[in-house]
Design goal:
The structure holds two protein chains of two kinds. By secondary structure, chain A is an alpha/beta fold. Helices cover 41% and strands 19% of the residues of chain A. Chain A has twelve helices and 14 strands. In chain B, 34% of the residues lie in helices and 20% in strands. The longest helix of chain B is centred in the first third of the chain and has 15 residues. Classes of the chains: A alpha/beta, B alpha/beta. At the A-B interface, β1, α2, α7, β8 and α9 of A face loops of B.
């Protein structure tokens, strides 16, 4: 392979997963993420891996449960309606403390919605999605290069914390082509002494299960899991800061919305408006500390989203409602233009100056 | 460039067929009155020739495309008008075929008529910077799969090696060895080297059969 290759975001996820040692992929086609499955179908048989097009999304996520129980790196991918179907299985993975990588290349909803890009599964992803008290680690790439990088990181985090990592991308980043370098340092997957790989007559058998008949035990399990989540929130939150130091108007945006917003921030700066950007890279855990930094300096925060306003709630919580937060959005598969975001910044700057 | 009556553009998924189809059609229109672009892509619902429909209108180029293209209705449908490609022998056409063998199956319905008339070129579009066709051997594998699916033989190679917006002239030059190996393995000629206009500007005199292209708009 050349130093850099030209890839679709979806293909970059697939290649990065293979690089991370994932040899088991289970999926079901849906636009705009089908390239992941197509790529895996071509590559997996050549490297001794398994590609399987399951009979449904529900089947695919349960195959992920099986492989993960056996201690192997495993993934599935889908787009919004398919992720809803997988949510039962994702809850089971959480209940059994199994690591896995799930990709959601979001499209417009609700229901079948449309095939164009969206970010309206933010609530579903950051609040767990399925039933019960649990979280996933949610990673939000904003470039094809990051699709690759965060896929590898997603596997590492999943193994380290024994939980699901989700790549929360969207149709634009999945479909667009950019040069990617795969010059990554790959860490070995850790030992998994809990895996159901056979006792060899040397130890007691392992059990992977999410059913707890004793409420006392189930309560302890939940509390322990939330102690782990608190550690992750402390350690793993990640955000990109752009022109933030003196920023009076702060944009909050992730993924494709952040790329659009960055152009608008540059345009505002050229006009002398002190604008900046916080781009959460982890959506759960939410980079609260980064947002708390602007409480004294920001006069207005604008949450730019491809949704009716979902991340905006976390922005308000993180800034303890001490800074006014407004929303700039498009939905239904539409993307805000840099001009729309710039106009929102300008309006906020004028209001702040009054 | 000397065009046959039908020019079929095939290649690996994401090799650049659609951009080349758009630019070729505009070039073909300079030589002929009755020109059409036919979009037979049943693989990719996101990036299609229909994105350039206004340009075609202005140039007086007929666009043959499924009524479902760009409708967001995710249906791998072919346009009924596609029979004009073989039925109307006064029509010069550029055919944008979907990626890989899966896309080329769409040609199967037309290939007996195309073979019978025998006034066509089928070009393989290659980009050495695509991850699944990084060398001549893997590219020729895709080439054979497409020939089998389309029931037609290739007549030449189009080198569209690029790294998107980051492409520099050296990237194109560094792909020449890769293309040479493909031509040696297949006996097919290199008919064009394509590059975005600003990259092409630095390649005049260094690359034979250079074809500068104006690219469709990309996202931010």
């Amino acid at each position: 392979m050349a130093d850099k290759v030209l890839m679709k975001g979806n293909e970059a996820i697939a290649e990065a997963a293979i690089l991370a040692g994932c040899r088991h992929y289970f999926g079901y086609p849906i636009t705009p993420q089908t390239e992941i499955a197509a790529y895996m179908a071509k590559r997996m048989p050549k490297i001794g891996g398994t590609f399987l097009q399951a009979e449904s999304e529900i089947a695919a996520i349960n195959m992920v449960y099986g492989v993960s129980s056996a201690g192997k790196r495993v993934m599935t991918s889908s787009s919004s309606p398919g992720i809803s179907l997988k949510s039962e299985g994702i809850s089971y993975l959480a209940g059994a403390d199994l690591p896995a990588l799930v990709v959601n290349c979001q499209r417009g909803g609700p229901g079948l919605g449309g095939i164009q890009p969206s970010q309206s599964d933010y609530f579903q992803a950051t609040r767990g999605g399925g039933h019960g008290d649990y979280h996933m680690i949610v990673l939000a790439p904003a470039s094809v290069q990051e699709m690759a990088q965060l896929t590898i990181r997603g596997f590492e985090l999943a193994d380290e914390y024994r939980m699901t990592s989700m790549i929360l991308a969207d149709g634009t980043i999945g479909q667009m082509m950019e040069p990617v370098s795969f010059d990554f340092e790959i860490k070995e997957a850790p030992e998994k002494p809990w895996a159901t790989t056979g006792t060899g007559m040397k130890r007691k058998h392992n059990v992977v299960n999410s059913l707890y008949l004793s409420p006392e035990v189930l309560e302890i399990k939940n509390i322990e899991r939330y102690e782990k989540y608190a550690k992750i929130a402390e350690k793993e939150a990640l955000a990109e800061e752009y022109m933030l130091d003196d920023a009076e108007i702060v944009i909050a945006a992730f993924g494709i919305a952040a790329r659009v917003a960055k152009n608008a921030v540059n345009a505002a700066r050229a006009e002398g408006i002190k604008a900046g950007l916080i781009r959460p890279i982890t959506l759960w855990p939410f980079p609260e500390k980064t947002f708390k930094k602007v409480i004294g300096t920001a006069k207005q925060i604008i949450s730019v989203e491809l949704s009716m306003g979902q991340m905006i709630e976390d922005v308000k919580l993180a800034t303890e409602c001490k800074v006014p937060v407004s929303l700039c959005y498009r939905v239904g598969g539409m993307i805000p233009s840099p001009e729309q975001v710039y106009a929102a910044i300008k309006e906020a700057a004028e209001k702040a100056g009054e | 460039m000397n065009y046959k009556r039908i020019t079929l553009l095939c290649g690996h998924y994401g090799s650049g067929k659609t951009n080349i189809a758009v630019n070729m059609a505009l070039d073909l229109r300079k030589q002929y009155e009755n020109v059409a672009v036919a979009d037979l892509d049943i693989v990719n619902p996101y990036f299609r020739t229909k994105d350039s429909s206004r340009e075609f209108d202005e140039a007086g180029i007929r666009l043959i495309v499924s009524e479902y293209a760009n409708s967001n209705l995710d249906i791998p449908a072919l346009p009924q008008e596609m029979y004009a490609i073989v039925d109307d022998r006064s029509l010069m056409s550029i055919v944008d075929v979907g990626g890989d063998d899966r896309g080329a199956y769409a040609l199967g319905r037309l290939s007996p008529a195309i073979r019978e008339e025998n006034n066509y070129d089928m070009f393989l579009v290659v980009n050495r910077f695509r991850p699944l066709t990084p060398d001549a051997v893997s590219t020729v594998e895709v080439l054979r799969e497409i020939e089998t699916a389309a029931s037609l033989k290739f007549s030449g190679i189009i080198n569209n090696s690029n790294l998107g917006a980051e492409t520099v002239p050296e990237d194109v030059l560094s792909s020449e060895q890769y293309v040479r190996e493909i031509t040696e393995l297949t006996g097919l000629p290199l008919v064009l080297t394509t590059a975005e206009e600003s990259v092409a500007a630095a390649l005049y005199g260094k690359v034979s059969n250079l074809f500068p292209m104006h690219l469709q708009k990309r996202p931010v």
